[in-house]
């Protein structure tokens, strides 16, 4: 049985000031009437013969998440509530321990954009055989530009009997521009989408080998919780759990790593530059939202909240005004955006 696992714990700091700790990126309605969380849940509902999804999120974010899911008619799911964030590997471990060993877990971050949902469903269907055979599958996206904001997957050999699925030779961290261009030119790399498909039992076994302390603490945090609406992880046990992503903890160490292609108009919209890249732009390459005006401006993202914003004579800039905060940044520094440090009192 296929079971979607939606990870809704990301903070999205590079989309500050729109994304905040109290209202993180998955809950933000970046384009249109639906949030990224809602779009992810609706995509998951398109998968045939799938079980009710597991929703992993922060305990404080559960009320708005449940409200947003109710808005779109998604009422049947299992919630796993984290008292603190410990990245994606512990989150996936909790979902795996709450599932049958033979369940195929489709791990979906709740802050991705996918334009072609039909191609997404086809990619998942095409990867099921590999997951059932014991491979831990990630989905790779063919790069169309030298992107420095994504991780890369180096292609290995094809896997016999599994059309389109290849072994993973290596994972590469977010590169500098020169390295990204080299990856693009070689044709031997794909962007790492951060979505995964594997048997629950396979993931637990691999995690037990890679980080026995992590699986032990997640199991302790779950305790003996049965089939309830929400599994609240024990704070002390989960806080003692090592942090780590699925990529770093499991995929970079396993010998069972595989990649399936995903050509579905994917983006993680992880920065204002990525949002600009995916949005409809005017004849000068600008995205302008709200009561904003641009004059002699090109290739820029300008968003105003309630008050007017004017941008004059600039190129490749990001200007975002949310009413209580303002961001002004060069487009090529979008990956460096983060919330400002708390103000400190200075001596006289």
How is this structure best described in words?
With 348 residues, the protein is an alpha/beta fold. Helices cover 27% and strands 26% of the residues. The protein has 10 helices and 18 strands. The strands form 4 sheets. A 5-stranded mixed β-barrel has the order 6-9-7-8-11. A 4-stranded mixed sheet has the order 13-15-17-18, with helices on one face. Strands 5-12 form a two-stranded antiparallel ribbon. Helix 3 crosses helix 6, helix 3 crosses helix 7 and helix 6 crosses helix 7. The longest helix has 16 residues. It is globular. 43% of the residues are buried.
Defining key terms:
single chain, 348 residues, alpha/beta, 4-stranded mixed sheet, 27% helix, globular
Alpha carbon gyration radius: 21 Å
- The helicity comes to 25-40%
The largest beta-sheet arranges its strands as: 6-9-7-8-11
What spatial form do the alpha-carbon principal axes imply? globular
Number of strands: 18
- What share of the residues does DSSP label as strand, in percent? 25-35%
Supply the helix-strand structural class. alpha/beta
Order of SSEs: EHEHEHEEHEEEHEHHEHHEEHEEEEEE
What is the average of the pLDDT values? 93
Instruction: Count up the helices.
Output: 10
Describe the sheet with the most strands.
5 strands, mixed, barrel
Low-confidence stretches: none
Whole-Å distance between the termini?
66 Å
């Amino acid at each position: 049985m296929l079971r979607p696992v939606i990870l809704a714990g990301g903070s999205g700091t590079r989309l500050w000031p729109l994304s905040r700790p109290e209202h993180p990126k998955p809950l933000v309605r970046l384009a249109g009437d639906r949030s990224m969380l809602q779009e992810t849940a609706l995509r998951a509902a398109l998968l045939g013969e799938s079980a009710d999804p597991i929703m992993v999120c922060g305990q404080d974010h559960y009320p708005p998440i449940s409200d947003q899911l109710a808005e779109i008619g998604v009422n049947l799911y299992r919630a796993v509530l984290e008292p603190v964030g410990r990245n994606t590997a512990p989150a996936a471990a909790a979902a795996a321990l709450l599932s049958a060993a033979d369940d195929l877990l489709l791990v979906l971050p709740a802050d991705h954009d996918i334009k072609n949902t039909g191609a997404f469903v086809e990619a998942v269907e095409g990867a099921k055989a590999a997951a059932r055979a014991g491979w831990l599958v990630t989905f790779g996206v063919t790069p169309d530009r030298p992107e420095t904001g994504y991780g890369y997957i180096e292609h290995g050999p094809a896997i016999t009997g599994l059309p389109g699925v290849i072994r993973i030779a290596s994972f590469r961290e977010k590169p500098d521009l020169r390295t990204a261009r080299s990856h693009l030119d070689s044709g031997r790399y794909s962007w790492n989408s951060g979505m995964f498909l594997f048997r629950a039992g396979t993931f637990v076994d691999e995690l037990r080998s890679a980080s026995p302390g992590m699986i032990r603490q997640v199991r302790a945090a779950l305790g003996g919780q049965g089939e309830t609406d929400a599994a609240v992880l024990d704070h002390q046990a989960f806080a003692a759990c090592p942090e780590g992503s699925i990529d770093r903890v499991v995929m970079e160490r396993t010998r069972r790593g595989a990649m399936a292609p995903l050509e579905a108009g994917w983006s993680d919209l992880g920065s204002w530059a990525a949002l600009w890249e995916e949005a409809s732009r005017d004849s000068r390459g600008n995205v302008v939202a709200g009561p904003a005006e641009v004059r002699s401006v090109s290739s820029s993202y300008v968003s105003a909240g309630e008050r007017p914003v004017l941008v004059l004579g600039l190129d490749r800039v990001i200007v975002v005004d949310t009413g209580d905060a303002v961001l002004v940044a060069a487009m090529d520094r979008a990956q460096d955006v983060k919330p400002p440090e708390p103000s400190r009192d200075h001596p006289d």
